[in-house]
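Honest question from a wet-lab person: if I give you the sequences of every part of a complex, can you actually get the arrangement of the whole thing, not just the pieces? Trying it with mine:
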Amino acid sequence: MMNRRFNPKYVLLALVFVLVLGAVLGSIFVKKSFKGDMVYIFPYLFEEDPFIQNLSTSLSEKLSNDYNISIQGAQNSQVIQSEQIQEAMSSDPLVLCINPVDRLGSYSIINALRKRDIPVIFFNRQPLTRDLALWRKAYYVGAPAEQAGRLQAELLAELFVCDGTVSAKHAVGVGSVAHTKGVSAVGAATATDTEFAGQRKACLGAQDKNGDGKIQIIFFKGEQSHQDAEVRFSTVVSSLAEMGYELDILAIETANWQRNLAASQMQNLIIKYGKSIEAVVASNDAMALGAISAIKSAGLFRDDNRDGKMSSADASWFPVVGVDGLPESDYAIETGYLYATVHNNAEKQAEYIARLVHILSGKAGYPVNSLSEDDIRQAGVPLEERRFVWVDYEKRK
Amino acid sequence: MKNKRPRSGPSITSTLAIAAGTLVLVVFLLTCVVVSYSVFRNAHKTLKEQSREINKQIVFNYDQYIQSIIQMANYMQYRTLNYDLEQNQQEIYDLFINSADSRSDVFAIALFDEDGAIRVGQSSSTANMPDPQEIKKSLWFYEANKTQEVYHFFSGVMLQEGSTYNKSGFIISHSFRYNEGGAEKMGVLVVEMNLDKIGVLKSLTNLGPYGHILFIDERDMLVYSSVDIKESHAKEVYRRAVREDFGSYTWTIGGRTTEVNINVLPYTRWRIVTSYDVGVSGQVNSQILVILAVILVGSILTAIAIGIAISRRISKPIDELREGMDQIASGSSRRHIEISGQKEIVSLANTFNGMMDEIDNLNAVLLEEQKQKRRTAMIALQNQINPHFLYNTLDSVVWLAEKHQSESVIKMVTALAKFFRISISRGCNIIGVKEELSHVLHYLEIQQIRYLDRISYHFEVDPAVEQYQMVKLLLQPIVENAINYGLTDEPVHIAIRARLEGDLLVFEVENTGYGMTLERIEEVMSAMRDANRKEGVGLKNIYQRIKVMYGARADIAMSSELDEYTRVEMRIPCVVEEHA
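Yes, you can. This is the full assembly:
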């Protein structure tokens, strides 16, 4: 009992205690195992937006050989995206690729990344130029939003051509009945402008079904109040105006970029306006395809000339225009339901983003902290205005 | 014995109590550390999640709110495009007035043309409008023209100079298209907002007593605070928040734990800071710690109590056993220990009791032997000093002296002296066989003189016996007996023989006379052997003495032939001289 010698049993017991304690505390303290070479991709949405999904997946494939890739959709919530970015920043990532939910929200994100010296490539939604200028390792890869609207306007203009003939469709007598009270204000405003109206009336060609010299048009916008949606919508309107077209806007629907929402809205519009619709312009393909599915289920288009596809030759047809150029859109164009789309080149954007990631991560061999614009151009990235890489939209019909 | 006693450790009771207490303490502390850590951690995590969820809801509410303003502006844009400012001035004017009036949080809405001149706006406010050149220089005008697709939010500026509207607010500017004289023109729409609605939205959420919401613009200026910003808690949150961009933080401000979430306010470059008051920091912890401490003390005391109880049960019988042993050791009359309890203790007690029985038995035997020894010693002493013999002899000496038979007196006194010298023999109990024989000879010489030659004797001694030792005064009583029984009307002749029989010394004392019958001999022998019978004292003493001294091998036998002789034979083992 009073033996002062160390009993080996006690030492062993103490050792076991310490080990158990260590294991328990260790399991609590140790966080996820550290992953080096992290590159994060933050799309504002993932599964719900096919274009962004394509772009993100394609980008991920290009990078996955050299980096640990993590793709995290933000469910269209800036709060969620901010949380994701904050989490990512703590894991010492090489580069972040962010498709911001909110363009203006990028301001704080850029500030935070600058403080932590983390390079960032924004894509698809463009932060303000002055915000991007805050951090020399911040870049933007995307298509110019105004261009999409302008090209959409051009595509419509290619259809509504003054060929001097009176449309056969006029004879069908889809009438001015379609002039509804909803747009009477426009009518009232333009009626006084007899000179312009008179000129156009004879000049819109066959697609001006009622021959009133105005385009009865429906717009599908992205999110109400969202900057990109605004840009695409307002440029198509302003471009058409610039080209001298007068619009009779039947409706501006906000379908939040979503196909199903656009389909159900289109269903109601068909009931309301039916054959008086002369054009549908959607800010993305998903909404355009949604509108088309409503047109199909309503049986609005008929293959009058029985050539196996819908076209301007068919009296019931009117143009539906989208933006993005999804694989599914190609098929819709083939069958004629989709008149045209403005192809947003996801593949090319992904390629440029991937090249920028290589440059900014240092793997391309350029000095990361003293990058010159020439370095970046030399690496095959067409840099403009110091921080921007523009990938042009392309018309597709 | 005492020096070798091992040092004793602590008692069983305290050992068990300490062991139990220590075990509980260690296990409890370990459990406490692990459990409390994970509990605190989870609690904090839950709290953080909760504050994040609340924050998300708040941000969502303000998102909706900002959207509603933008929608209003979009609607105005859409409606305005259907009018011409020249021809439909009243309609456009009504649109602006109605839009402003429909919302309590809109203070004013105005349309400026590209030159900075106000075109549409509330008539009451137009009077105080600054100079168009000033307007053109203002940031809100510049930004709206520069980045047309975006709504610009500005805090800390008011549209009108000297506005009586004393509440602070913010303005929103956006490029605005309108038709004038058939031509489309670009202007700037300005919406001036007050903070009423923002405050209302705040009150929908519960952020705790010190919780609040701050809006911070891109220049880190405070746009809105749901509490008085001079209040130190909010001031501190603001001071720290401007250093961060966004994210979740746990700050301790003024001793209170605050979960702060900083987020981007959608559609603006502003940040919204929600501060969720968790409470006085450490309060929850200390409360739990107090509870834990109470449990700890309670369980240690319980463990010690249980330890003491268990050890009592174990040690009580041990203590009883020890007490019993102590009592026995200190000479109590108690001989047995009766204990109920653990098997081991009971068996220990039984063994002890058996041992005690054995000791008692041995003691009894020893006591009896010692008693016997004492008794025989007394007898020997009595035998040594036979006063009657002395008185008779002295009487004879007196009688001889009176008759002037000096020769006989000398002989008798000399024999008496020698007789007593051997009797006393310096206190030694053991003497040589030769001396014993000469003692008998002296005795016979005295008796011969006393009985006037009616006694004759002769010795037949094997010289070999003389080298041995023997208990003294064994032969003289036998000879005395022989004279007493043999002296009748006829003179008696005593024959004394000594010889060796193997390793036994054999002494024979034979006297002439009537002799004894066999029955008589048997009776005398049995009387001699039975210590409890009073008759035959002389022979019995001898017999008991040789039994005590020499054991079973010593014996006395008698034989007789009527009218011829009576013979007593004594056999004792040969003993060589033991000591000098």
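Two things worth pointing out. The longest strand of chain A covers residues 246-254. The longest helix of chain A spans residues 8-29.
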